[in-house]
Amino acid sequence: MYQLKDEKLKHELKNSLDKILTTNKIKDIESITYEGSNIVATSDPTYFDISIRIKGHLEESETLILPKPLRLKNSLLDKINKDKENHGYKEIETMIVDALDNYYEGC
Q: Which residues contact residue 32 at a Cβ distance below 8 angstroms, ignoring those fewer than 6 apart?
């Protein structure tokens, strides 16, 4: 099988599929693989049928949750702020979302 590596083709396919797919959007196209072809010479005019496989990922939809104010002990908040600085986060919210995402991806 032959892998098509043309980045412009991937970009054009992504844009076209985004227009076709009404409920999902394409996050990225990982690969485009030529899987075979069939040339039918018995018809007039001769036609061909080419099979390709497009492998990619869909964007995940997001929901905004407005949590109630959290009551944290000062010692816990100090630890969170220290971790925030150590890991280069500017916002506590971003750090918490990443921590939850990493936690649940491992489950």
A: 3, 4, 6, 9, 10, 13, 52, 53, 54, 55
